[in-house]
Amino acid sequence: MGEEVKISEFEFNSAEDEEATEKANTTVFDNEDDVDQRVLEWEIGLPDCDDLTPLSQSLIPPEFASAFSISPEPCRKALDVNRASYDTLSSIRSSGAHFSTYNDNKNNNNNDICSFDDPMVVEPEGGGSGSGSGSEPKKLRKTGVDIAEEADSAVRTTENSEDPSAMTLKRQRLVWTPQLHKRFVDVVAHLGIKNAVPKTIMRLMNVEGLTRENVASHLQKYRIYLKRMQGLSNQGPSASDQMFASTPVPRSLPESRSGGGGNGLAGGSRKDDGHVGMPIPMPSLVPLAMPMYGHMAMHLGGYHNRQNGYEANSYGMQPRYWPCGNKSGSVVSLPNHMPPNHKLS
DNA sequence: AACTTAATAT
DNA sequence: TATATTAAGT
């Protein structure tokens, strides 16, 4: 159906060919409109109703069902799906079990585009901070607009006064899974460190529900890590930063970022999003062809990779980095289905 | 308004 | 401990 939409347009070329890489870098992220345009094209390429198995249709052929003594599935409707998601959520919560859907088919390095899934979120612990069902307290004095808009636009997309799953995931603590972190690093690398600012990173990561604050916080830590690594140029990363250590580190650091506030890059030049001043030369930075994420939204329920209509979603890989091992607070995979960024502002 | 950093809170 | 939030500066 959408096969006319050429994926190659979105792709970054292999770092072997630096010219091509540079060209790609300059062409792919000309400006925000360009990104939006590509998202639009991506959306056009989404399967339409004809491509999707209707909820009313059983996934298991009747012969199979009877051969394996599988009781016939009841007819599902959208509401059932939502409720199932909600139930899953609840049971995970009450059991306190960790639940993760990693999909890292052992090729951790080959940055294949299929290996993303599931930004996870942790329920805030303790009853303290205005949790419960109606938690909307502090917000007021904040810049409010940004955060609320970003987070909410993702949620509200499917929320129509019902959809319990959307209600359940208010503001929860984001878990930076290796996959999510990798996407982060990829984006930072491609932006070049100069341009890698929270908002831009957030947009290019294209992860629904991810806020600028999420990114800023992570970026802050990431920079500290990079700085440390630069200082100790020779030795490997310490055991404490497994997460960061698991990803290639861009060589160049922001020039003379010697403390103090931001460099002058802040407000003024937000147009030149993706323009990387220098081509990214190091294969280690972006080892292979790196399709950027414009055509693939990651959202809180897993992300859809639309080549072949195959949705990558495998379960069972352990979180090996940043094991988020604390018992307090369950890790959940958010169940609601959201259309990929409809509105990239 | 967005960014950075440090400090602090959860 | 990892992440969020706040504060104060650019």
Topology readout:
Blueprint: H1 18-28, H2 32-44, H3 62-67, H4 78-95, E1 120-122, H5 145-156, H6 164-168, E2 173-175, H7 178-191, H8 198-205, H9 212-231, H10 242-245, E3 331-333
Antiparallel strand pairs: 1-2, 1-3
Helix pairs in contact: 7-8, 8-9
The structure holds a DNA duplex (10 and 10 nucleotides).
Total helical elements: 10
The CATH class label of the domain at 178-231 is: Mainly Alpha
Order of helices and strands: HHHHEHHEHHHHE
As a percent range, the share of helical residues equals 25-40%
Oligomeric description of these chains: single chain
Task: State the strand order across the main sheet.
Answer: 2-1-3
- Radius of gyration, CA atoms, in whole angstroms: 21 Å
CATH architecture of the domain at 178-231: Orthogonal Bundle
- Poorly predicted ranges (pLDDT <50, ≥5 residues)? 1-56, 72-118, 124-166, 253-291, 300-345
- CATH-defined fold name of the domain at 178-231: Arc Repressor Mutant, subunit A
Relative strand content:
under 5%
Q: How far is the first residue's CA from the last residue's CA?
A: 27 Å
Secondary-structure content class: mainly alpha
Largest beta-sheet details:
3 strands, antiparallel
InterPro entries: Homeodomain-like_sf (IPR009057), LUX/BOA-like (IPR044841), Myb_dom (IPR017930), Myb_dom_plants (IPR006447), SANT/Myb (IPR001005)
Biased composition (Low complexity): 103-112
Biased composition (Gly residues): 258-267
Subcellular location: Nucleus
